[in-house]
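Letters spell out the chain; the tokens describe the backbone. To illustrate:

===
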Amino acid sequence: MAAQNRKPVLIAGAGLASLLLARSLLRSSIPFLVFERDQSILFRAQGYRLRLSSEGLDAIESVLGPEEFPRFWDKCGKTGGAKGFAAVDALTGQEVDESTKKPSEDAPKGPGREILSSRDGKTVGISRGDMRALFLEGCEPYVRWGHHVAGYELTSDGVRAIFKDGTKSVEGDMLVGGEGIYSKVAKQVSNGKIKTYDTGARGIHGQAPTAAFKELGEGVWRLVDNSKPQGRVFTITNVRPGDMDDPDVQFGWTMGGQPGVIQPPNDDFAIIGKPAADMAKALTAHWHPRVKPLFDQMNESEAAFWKITCSTPSGVPVWPNDPRVTVIGDAVHSMTPAGGIGANTAFRDSALLGGLLAAEGGWKEGVTATYEKEMRVYGSEAVKMSYGMATSQFGVTINENSSPTVG
């Protein structure tokens, strides 16, 4: 990074959006520091595989540039054969036509059939762990692990991050909150206007060797179980032909349950490993042999459970702009897993803010206001779309009168 006589951009969190922003700043030779509460990139399970939309891919390509994007693209899996999900009845193993299914009359209106292809007619995806490692490359000297941002203070000519232990960062030109749904930066800068709700729906992520997916074959699949009295359970997985015969590769799957279906001990969202795997195995114990191996043969250490959250469905709220502080990704617009919209929108945040900073050679008065004005438009549209999909997939209902349950 080129030395400059200016203060760094401070970034809270080292998730995908934060690291993509860091890569943008690195490419523009703008000094930055990233503060992450975990002790290393390997500290926690990396979560499910992400499906990249056209907008998400475009954002990543604009940040990485023609020098680095081809290597990222090569790392992505490309699945053909369908413009949408192929649905399978988890109890019979038979494919079913979901296009004739009529939504309930009281369900909020959501988008129709999802179009999964994003480039070259393929469904493009990559694991969170692989993506995070790729984004981190070159940024390692500027990441401070084990630093949990709990807030910030403005100075006469900048801003400092305040850590959970009471210590403070060096002075920066600006602070970007990218530390997820529990972001203290978001809560402080918006004076509590940014709210995240627990939808009541729950999810489990898992992985299994490619051999467990042989009976499914290539495609993007939705496995559906409507037999449980509490509600619907479904699993989404992407079977990539290029990796099907590689015994060293694991495919991931993501299970979702309507409110009340998946009930972990103490409703602890941080359950990982065997306890999460045992929940998935219990829920699928009576599933058909065509799909049951995905769970029977799963890598138990990679299993993870989480609560499914969402921002206010009406969109990103307006708060008085602070020229020195702004927020990106889940910290400002948390979304359900439906459609993979959340991460792709976060990538747009990183590309937009990074591009604005690059154009000015670093922080300048008005950058955060310009970013927030544009982000609110596409961010609000994305939240509404994600929520609309979730009402049919997860059976969730929230609105501005609901009580925020994520602090």
